[in-house]
Amino acid sequence: MALFLALLVAGIALVAIGAGVDGMLYLSSAGVLLLIADLLYLAARSVWRSPRRPAR
Q1: In sequence order, which residues have a C-beta less than 8 Å from that of residue 18 and are 6 or more positions away?
Q2: CA–CA separation, 52 vs 4, rounded Å?
């Protein structure tokens, strides 16, 4: 969970810096890609941890 939070904070910081500084659009796009990767990581982690119990 610490990796998820670190990636989330880094992505938000990159988007904020990229939006605030003129000519730093690549930082903003890198931040958005990092946020998407973070959400995919969270989804994959939740799928891996789902209990596989047989239906009754």
Answers
A1: 24, 25, 26, 27, 28, 29, 30, 31
A2: 24
Residue 28 exposure: Cα atoms within 13 Å on the Cβ side: 10
Is the pTM value of this prediction over 0.85? no
Q: What pLDDT does residue 36 have?
A: 92
The CA distance from 22 to 29, in Å, is: 14
Q: Structure tokens of 56?
A: 């009754």
The one-letter code for the residue type at 16 is A
CB-based contact 43:36 (threshold 8 Å): no
Give φ, ψ of 28 to 5 degrees: -65, -45
